[in-house]
Amino acid sequence: MAALGRQVFDWHRRIALTWALIARQTPQLGEQKRTTAFFLRTLTTASNGGGLEKSSFVEPQKCAQEPEHRTGLIQCLLEKQRTPVEREKIVSSLLDMGFSDVHVHELFSIQPGTHPQQLLDIISELILLGLNPESVCVALKKSPQLLKLPVMQMKKRSSYLRKLGLGEGKLKRVLYCCPEIFTMRQRDIEVIVGVLKEKCLFTVKQVTEILHRCPYVLREDPGELEYKFQYAYFRMGIKHVDVVRTDFLQYSMTKTKQRHLFLERLGRYQTPDKKGQTQVSNPLLKDILRVSEAEFLARTACSSAEEFEVFKKLLAREEEESEGCMADEESLEEEEEQELEEEEQEL
To answer: Distance between CA atoms of 279 and 273, rounded to whole angstroms?
Structure first.
């Protein structure tokens, strides 16, 4: 009888150990621990001579949620239900604006985390500025950071661009070439506009045309932009109207000087006098800057590529020496100023 009792006790102990092992190896630890505890209590009761009593343990799936937990789940479900409905409304609004299904898919894939209403607000501002759906897609794909802008900032910048005359479709080229016009500081834009108006003396209408035709000027250093205009006006004799009409300001200073000075040393270009007259017939600006280097040499300069390469190297050396001399002069001026200050202090 004693041996039989030990066998029964050993059998119950093995069952308990088996359930404990299962609980440790199961991912749903919390749930299995409670299940294990239930079986252990049941087995312990039976081993002590009692019957299998009805446990008060309730399965996790049937546990009643706490009120606050239940509220959170409902809110989460509502959020999940609201998003598709809101997205559907945004899609409908975009289609009404003239966007195709392909356009809408592209817009939502540019910045997947962007809130649908934010997307609609930014696109609406671009449409109000005169851009068409295709232009909006191109601009946003090229500059996705536009979708992160606060709507109020976008509205203020749009208003400022309208004051500059960059509305009614003129913004398309600007956004394609310089999409950061919406993200750069307004002060930087105002400085460039100020240089064109006050330093270069362009009219308001001409400034608008320059920003439209040569939006790259927005990226230029204000001092270099002023120097570029002065070179065109005083050195090459190009008037304000021609600077705007020929898009002169979009070309680099290096390219302009290389081709202009090369023609000048060949005797094919001459700076006009005060009356605007020259002894040679200067070539048109489009034949100097708008053409490729091969076409420039063959038709305008009537020279070889080897000769032009030698000239560019000589010009670069001359400019380095000139910059060195200017640096020496500046240092001499600083030394003289320091000496004067020392003498004044001694007196």
So the answer is: 10
Low-confidence ranges of the chain (pLDDT < 70): 1-85, 326-337, 339-347
Side chain identity at residue 346, one-letter code: E
d(CA 25, CA 48): 29
Angle at 258 (CA atoms; ends 231, 329), nearest 5 degrees:
60
Could you say which DSSP state residue 179 is in?
A: G
Which pLDDT does position 87 carry in this prediction?
Answer: 79
pTM score over 0.90: no
Q: How far apart are CA 114 and CA 290, in angstroms?
A: 42
- For the chain, the domains span 2-52, 252-322
Terminal Cα distance for the chain, rounded: 125
d(CA 134, CA 119) in angstroms, rounded, equals 16
Provide the Cα torsion 91, 92, 97, 100; round to 10°.
Answer: 60
Nearest-10 Cα torsion for 110, 112, 116, 121: -40
Query: Cα separation of 192 and 137, whole Å?
Result: 28
Cβ partners under 8 Å of residue 12, min gap 6: 43, 44, 46, 47
Taking the C-alpha atoms of residue 166 and residue 164, their distance in angstroms, rounded to an integer, is 6
